[in-house]
Specification:
This protein has 161 residues and is mainly beta. It is built from 2 helices and 8 strands, in the order H-E-E-H-E-E-E-E-E-E. 7% of the residues are buried.
Amino acid sequence: MGVRRATTPQECRLRDLTYSAPITVSVEYTRGAERILKKGIVIGRMPVMLRSNICVLNGKDDAELAKMQECPLDPGGYFIVKGQERVILIHEQLSRNSLVVEHDSRGVPSAHVMSYTHEKKSKTHVVMKKVGNFYSSSLIKLPYSNFNSSETICSIELTTL
């Protein structure tokens, strides 16, 4: 019988292992009239993010981290896969054909719409200029548009006090 103990991230780095946890499920099925329930069936493993709530480093003080050969200043948030530290990078993709309204660095409201079809792409900006206590808007189509000038992408009216 083998001894089971928690694997540390440093051990996984040194031994080219993946720092992971088992994925378990409970299965209930019937065989004839008999109902069978099996709990804790391992169906695979998933990498564990360092310093997450299931990581062995979670909640450890500096002395305990040093004892585990981990840097107390390491913020975590990454994975160890086959001994290599891996990060997931977020790639944000804005929704198609939707209006995005935001304030620029000077606090002036602006809006833009990215319009897509399978063969065409256009970006329309609404530029705001302050006139007295109000903002007036003007529509600008960017030159890379394949739309004809007679096509209307959107109609926007913004009034801000």
